[in-house]
Design a protein that fits this description.
Blueprint (H helix, E strand, L loop, with lengths): L2 H25 L5 H11 L5 E5 L2 H15 L4 E3 L2 H4 L12 E5 L6 H13 L3
Length: 122
């Protein structure tokens, strides 16, 4: 590999790290009372943390569920499209449901929320 290519790789990596650093810094303003409340709800959960989301949010939700499970918090992912076709039966009133949506308007997630609320999870 030539020096010019090596320098381009380094510059690209440093640029990516800077973008991530700025994104993490921007999160500091979002750690508020809502974040604390979400933590309290999850910590008080008597059942499992059920994560749902569609598309990229679903991929992220799947990772969140796997991370929670691997660190000792019973958790699993439910695809919102499958939930309305029988998978809602996996959710109990003791569970906490974490719905993820970039827009807040994802139809598949919005469709199952009233059903989940009637079931009693938080």
């Amino acid at each position: 590999m030539n020096t010019e290519t090596s320098q381009t790789f380094k510059e690209s990596a440093l640029r990516a790290i800077e973008i991530e650093r700025e994104a993490i810094h921007a999160l500091t303003d979002r750690i508020d009372d809502r974040f604390v409340r979400a933590c309290e709800v999850i910590m008080a959960c008597k059942g499992r943390v059920v994560v749902t989301g569609m598309g990229k949010s679903g991929h992220i939700g799947n990772k969140i569920a796997a991370t929670l499970a691997s660190t000792g918090t019973p958790s699993f992912f439910v695809h919102p499209g499958e939930a309305s076709h029988g998978d809602l039966g996996m959710i109990t009133s003791q569970d906490v449901v974490l719905g993820i949506s970039n827009s807040g308007n994802t139809s598949e997630v919005l469709t199952i929320l009233p059903l989940i609320k009637r079931m009693g999870p938080r």
